[in-house]
């Protein structure tokens, strides 16, 4: 297993359809850098464990090739079809559920993103319907949050840090905007984002990587 950083949400999308669209983009080679990095690191570990490749370097090369030649995306489509899903959505993700409202989350001041509370962003997504408050709640697959600024990024006052995506409830949208805004810490000086992978856990113990 790999122990990964949670100093900020992984990728830019938080929410069901939003994350599916981001996964499709990543398999096209168009995904966020941190999500792409994790896909390559986790995938390479699995290929080595399965003895498909002799080293993680070789595994990364194979994974990059599968992204470049479309093989990874084709395999995802095959999985979706095998489970009774609509494979055409892999080719046309614009057909995924989309929210009617996209409300920006403005920065309150200038500076650099120093921290993003991942739990707070996740809870804000739940307010919008991306998750359940109680067991009986229905899930809105279109709801969620799109991050426009990540750790180390510069921001100016009122520049969008993120946007909330939702259908309907104006009060929930306002609450989510406030919660996502509060999840961001803006400092006057830039700081470097921490390494994505912190440690590797094996049968022999824990190897600290960063």
The number of distinct helices, counting runs of at least 4 residues, comes to 7
Low-confidence stretches: none
**Mean pLDDT score:** 95
Oligomer: single chain
Task: Describe the structure in brief.
By secondary structure, the protein is an alpha+beta fold. The protein has helices at 16-27, 33-49, 56-68, 71-82, 88-91, 118-127, 170-183; strands spanning 2-4, 13-14, 101-106, 111-116, 144-147, 154-155, 160-166, 184-187, 197-202, 205-208. Helix 2 packs across helix 3 (56-68) and helix 6 runs antiparallel to helix 7 (170-183).
Attribute tags:
7 helices; 210 residues; globular; alpha+beta; 10 strands; single chain; four-stranded antiparallel beta sheet
Question: Could you characterize the architecture of this molecule?
Answer:
There is one protein chain. 39% of the residues lie in helices and 21% in strands. It is built from seven helices and ten strands. A four-stranded antiparallel beta sheet has the order 2-5-7-3, with helices on both faces. Helix 2 packs across helix 3.
Write the SSE topology:
Layout (H helix, E strand, L loop, with lengths): L1 E3 L8 E2 L1 H12 L5 H17 L6 H13 L2 H12 L5 H4 L9 E6 L4 E6 L1 H10 L16 E4 L6 E2 L4 E7 L3 H14 E4 L9 E6 L2 E4 L2
Antiparallel strand pairs: 1-9, 2-5, 3-7, 4-6, 4-8, 5-7, 9-10
